[in-house]
Amino acid sequence: MKDERESRIGVSSRRKVGWALGPMAFDRLLAAFSSDREQAGETYEQLRNTLVTFFDWRGCADPEELADETFNRLARRLEEGEEIRNAQIYCLGVARLLVLEVKPKQNRRAPDLDALLGIAAPVSDKEALVERERKFDCLERCLERLSAENRALLISYYQGERAAKIDHRLELAKSLGITLNSLRVRLHRLKARLEICVRDCFNAKP
Amino acid sequence: MAKQSIDPEEQRLINYLLGMTSAEEAEPIENRYFSDPNYHEQLLALEDELIHAYLRRELPAHQQQAFEDYFLASERRQKKFLATRDLLSYVDQLLPTTAKTSSVGVPTTKKTGWFTLPSFPRLIGATAVLLALAVCGWWFWSQQQTQIQSDIAQTAVSVSPSPALSNQPIQAADNSLPAPQAPAALADKPQMTVSKPIYVVAFALPGTRDTAEKVTVTLPAQAETVQAQIALSETSDQRYELVLKTTDGERIWQQQNLSRQTTRLGLGVITSLPANRLQTGETYVLDVKGISSTGESRFLEQAFLLISKK
Fold first, then answer.
1. Is residue B240 within 8 Å of residue B289, measured between CB atoms?
2. pLDDT tens digits for B188-203?
3. How confident is the model at residue B264, as a pLDDT?
4. Cα distance from A27 to chain B (closest Cα, Å)?
5. Interface ipTM > 0.90
């Protein structure tokens, strides 16, 4: 785990600023999050995810690299002996500065809507059809791996349109004894699990 | 994400996700999700909702634009979008538009949610979900039967001249899908299975003009009606009309006012076909018309369907 993190950060730092995050610097970085190493590792992962989505939501082109660059800058400050009271808040400050630095220079590509909506792949293209079928097979297989409760919940949640959908979800949340927000989060987690399963299944050799 | 469900706080978050907030407006949101992982997760869940709303065409025009230009520019969100598109397509094939109502519900348990109860009540809750889905499946099947009867009756009285044939060749497309497509959850509950299975076929109309192949549509021999997911080559219209005829021009079936949906093979329409009125080995002509927002109808394409029953 540690090696993975070190290599992830190290590669980025060497490439971007010519400053490598060595083991000592990495230890200092973790210690800034918590004195408990395990806890610090968890905080690091959580914060990295938050940074990635932050850059993404701010419209930056390469959120993962920018998240790593944020940690590099924090690590350098720590190496220089700066005292940082709240590493999370410090990272947010660095991240905001990075947005200002990179956004004017970046050239983010416009999304290919046709491809995303499934219009671009010609329906006569056998390969595309086979691929789509494989994806659906994976989806079916992954849904079968969910518990019956979760499968029914997922299918039920995505039914309905507009007002009917809202009423249905409110009813669903009420029956589960949770708020609509909690229901959304539950479905988000379920969907995230499903997406990983489908991706793994699809990437495995047929 | 229909309008009536949105409170001002949620609207603020939606605007943030769509890149429609200033740095000043974004600051308190960002401060909060950096210090509260639950809030961060709520935003991620809201992303899912936005994608769902977009795919269901429920976003107001300005949000739709921002969704396409800004939200989808992110690779991470594109992946989420594609996964949701596939999932919705799958759910839609379980219960088509006519059945997508709040009738699929989970029975209300007492004060506590069933996920927080001990295992036995949870089991009851889960069974109740399955029961609800089964009832919905039966309801959908009976609706289909009613629709087919109505179509047949309509055919008898509303035969209009067929559009001019332009000798448009049709290329074969894959239509081999597993059937029946009742929710997998129902499979374990034989006492609750739908009395007649729902069969699903999917095929694509390429609309190309350089070949003369037929689209082979494989139907289960015992099916009276099937849900047909038909991917269209042109999908710029919101509504569609389909007319199925024999090669002699005799009208077999027609369906009007079909909305554009995501099928298993791309954008198109989902409808029920009277499988029992189609003969194996026979070729039928399917005309597709697009209907504009002003109600104007225009001919889009024609496909030759070769029916194969197995």
1. yes
2. 333 323 334 456 777 7
3. 65
4. 22
5. no
- Residue of A151, A161, A191 lying closest to B100 (CB–CB): A161
Closest residue of B to A92, CA-based?
B34
Residue B41 within any structural domain of the chain: yes
Domain that holds residue B263: 159-309
Contact criterion met (CB below 8 Å) for B215 and B173: yes
Distance, CA of B290 to CA of B86 (rounded, Å) = 25
End-to-end CA separation in angstroms for chain A: 30
What is the reported pLDDT for A53?
97
Render pLDDT for B256-282 as a digit per residue (tens, 0 to 9): 777 777 666 667 887 778 888 888 888
Q: Residue A188's domain spans which residues? A: 113-203
Is pLDDT above 60 for A106? yes
The pLDDT of residue B26 is above 90: yes
What does the alpha-carbon distance between residue B105 and residue B129 come to, in Å, rounded to a whole number? 7
CB spacing of B264 vs A136 below 8 angstroms: yes
In a domain, A107, yes or no: no
Tell me which residue in B72, B125, B183 faces A116 most closely, judged by beta carbons.
Answer: B72
Structure tokens at B273: 């076909």
